[in-house]
């Protein structure tokens, strides 16, 4: 059963055990990268909560966080990594079957 496979996949990637982190990862899979402000708007989390979730995803190697200088100062950008893309593809494959 595919549900069992999905549950096992999520158990083996413990940092994806919350819907918020899984949602962020899947969203970044489609857009490849997003500004912190865009993620704030999309998730409707407060800044501290969102930043904590992003740090967990970065620590596990699913995303890369970098501060980029802009005219309005430094802005945080999150980009999906190869590892993140592989896991997101696997999750989406199981959800589609």
TrEMBL record:
InterPro entries: WH-like_DNA-bd_sf, WH_DNA-bd_dom, WH_DNA-bd_sf
Domain of life where this protein originates: Archaea
Domain Winged helix DNA-binding: 20-96
Gene3D superfamilies hit by this protein: Winged helix-like DNA-binding domain superfamily/Winged helix DNA-binding domain
Pfam families per UniProt: HTH_34
PANTHER family: BSL7504 PROTEIN (PTHR37318)
Annotated protein name in UniProt: Winged helix DNA-binding domain-containing protein
Phylogenetic lineage: Archaea, Thermoproteota, Thermoprotei, Sulfolobales, Sulfolobaceae
């Amino acid at each position: 059963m595919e549900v069992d496979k999905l549950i096992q996949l999520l158990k083996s990637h413990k940092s994806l055990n919350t819907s918020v982190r899984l949602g962020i990862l899947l969203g970044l899979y489609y857009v490849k990268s997003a500004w912190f402000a865009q993620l704030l708007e999309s998730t409707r989390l407060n800044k501290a909560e969102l930043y904590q979730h992003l740090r967990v995803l970065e620590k596990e190697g699913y995303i890369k966080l970098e501060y980029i200088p802009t005219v309005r100062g430094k802005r945080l950008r999150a980009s999906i990594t190869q590892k993140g893309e592989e896991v997101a593809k696997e999750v989406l494959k199981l959800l589609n079957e």
